[in-house]
Amino acid sequence: MLFRATTTSSSTITEQVLVYLRISEDRTGEEAGVERQRDDCLALCARLGLDVAEGDVFMDNDTSAYLDKKRPDFARMLARIKLGPSRVVVWHVDRLYRRPRELEDLIDLVETHPIRIEAVMGGAFDLNTHEGRLMARQLVAMAAYESGHKADRIRRANRQKAERGDWHGAAKFGYGTGGVLIPEQAAVIREMADRFLAGQSLRSITAWLNEESGFPAPQANTGKTLGVWHATTVKSILVSARISGQRAYEPGRRHGDAPNGREILGPGNWPAIITPEETTRIRAMLSNPDRRVGASSINLLSAIATCGKCGSGLVSGKNTHGPSDAKRRYYRCMPVPGHPERGGLSVSASGLEAVVKEAVIARLAATTLPADTPETGGAVAAAMGRILAARERMEDLARDYGAGMLSRSEYHAGRVAAQSAVHDAELALGRVNRGSALKGLPIGDEAALRHAWDHEWTVPQKRAILTALVDSLVVQPYANGGSRFRPERVELTFKA
After folding, report:
1. Cβ contacts of residue 116 below 8 Å, gap of 6+?
2. Where does residue 295 rank: exposed (0-12), middle (13-18), buried (19+ CB within 10 A)?
3. Measuring CA to CA, which residue among 78, 85, 89 is closest to residue 128?
4. Cβ contacts of 484 within 8 Å, gap of 6 or more
5. Helix (H) or strand (E) holding 152
6. Are 274 and 325 in a shared domain?
7. Which of 41, 94, 293, 409 lies at a 20 to 30 A Cα distance from 486?
8. What is the CATH number of the domain that holds 84?
9. HSE of 391, CA atoms in CB hemisphere, 13 A
């Protein structure tokens, strides 16, 4: 941190010199734009005889001031300005602020924190004078006006690019700049999709990526991350339209508003890693309300086993009194106030899980999987057809409403009906997807099945297999109460 002493007629003022750099869009991620700004700003400082410490250069890369994105280094610089009189050096004043509100925030600091702005392009002005403030307000008004027009032009251009199926933005995991396929990363995405469609949870896929894949997380080589995979990253990749060669476009949605992926506009002009059908199935599985999450991912039969008294799903628990952990674990029906039929049933977890394991292995060892039938493929195709038709109806409704051919109530009713059709079709896809959990299993080989159950399959994989095979798993109450296990308490029914 350097402070520069300047002398006036009455006193010596210690002034700090701060350089601020910003570029709105960095398509390559190489920061070339801000580096050019840095060179120009430091050259201006040298001409003016200003000394700049390395820590006094603030940079926000790929950050648009107009789109209301956060500018962390801009906030840090404001905090530094509060320390004393400041000389702020920028390439152009629109790099510093582009909206009147941001300028007024700076002007509010002037009363106690004098600020002078030096610009490579456009010269200098002093916010401590009326003339300087007038000039700054005129410049920011013009910048805001131009930003509005620029945003409109960008939106129209982005819409046209989306309709053509052009690649948008910087490189993404699996693809280089412009949508060029990166084979090594594409193979990782293919494995992620296969594992998820086979019933593995996002958490187990994340563990595989971190512990076994040997492949670092996206942007690991940029220094922006620690190279560790997170479940949110896995999900964002799997639901993205781009990995199936499709173009998504929803300009009204902000980051995080589309947890299961943005709306797909049409095919893109880059190579796909998975099929469009697989993307639809992945999204359907994630939006399926029957999807088992939470504690059920570490407990084999939570919410799969049901109570013979009330029909509710059993949950896992532990009894602190007992000689071993295996004997302390149990599944029970949770009591609910106001529902006297709930609660009062429990069963030993180790006993119930052993019975289920033997039944499932016997089932898989004594049968062969049916080949993919036209009916199964037809169910997927029919569901996807309903989804596409409903989306087309929503587009038609929007056009008719915009043209004044529909009232607001008619448009709303039609859109609700179309959204309901999409939801029903996604549920149907979710039911078809359950059969994917059985692909690749050593069907008919009891020894291999036992080894896989004990040493290879994770709890989420076992749960996916159970969901695909078991129609119902009911635990009846024990006549004498308690959780004492009796095999005859278990009623397990397989799907046809």
Report:
1. 15, 86, 87, 88, 124, 125, 126, 127, 128
2. exposed
3. 85
4. 348, 478
5. helix 130-164
6. no
7. 293
8. 3.40.50.1390
9. 12
Domain with 274, as residue range(s), is 173-285
- Residues 29-72: tens digit of each pLDDT: 555 577 888 899 999 999 999 988 888 999 887 655 445 567 88
> Do 485 and 360 reside in the same domain of the chain?
yes
Please state, in angstroms and rounded to a whole number, the distance separating the CA atoms of residues 328 and 346: 12
- Based on C-alpha coordinates, what's the Rg of the chain? 31
Cβ-based neighbours of 219, under 8 Å, separated by 6 or more: 225
Sort strands 3-7 and 12-22 into parallel, antiparallel or unpaired. Answer: antiparallel
Same domain, 324 and 454: yes
Q: Number of structural domains, the chain? A: 4
Measured between its terminal Cα atoms, the distance across the chain in Å is 75
CA nearest neighbour of 192 among 184, 183, 202: 202
pLDDT digits (tens, 9 = 90+) for 385-432: 777 677 777 777 877 777 788 887 887 788 878 777 776 766 565 555
Instruction: Give which of 427, 144, 109, 124 is closest to 287, Cα–Cα.
Output: 427
One domain, residues 272 and 314: no
For residue 19, give the 3-state DSSP assignment: strand
Q: Residue 448: which residues within 8 A CB-CB, separation 6 or more? A: 442
- Buried b or exposed e, range 106-139, using 16+ CB within 10 angstroms: bbeebeebbbbbbbbeeeebbbeeeebbebbeeb
The verdict on residue 468 lying in a domain is yes
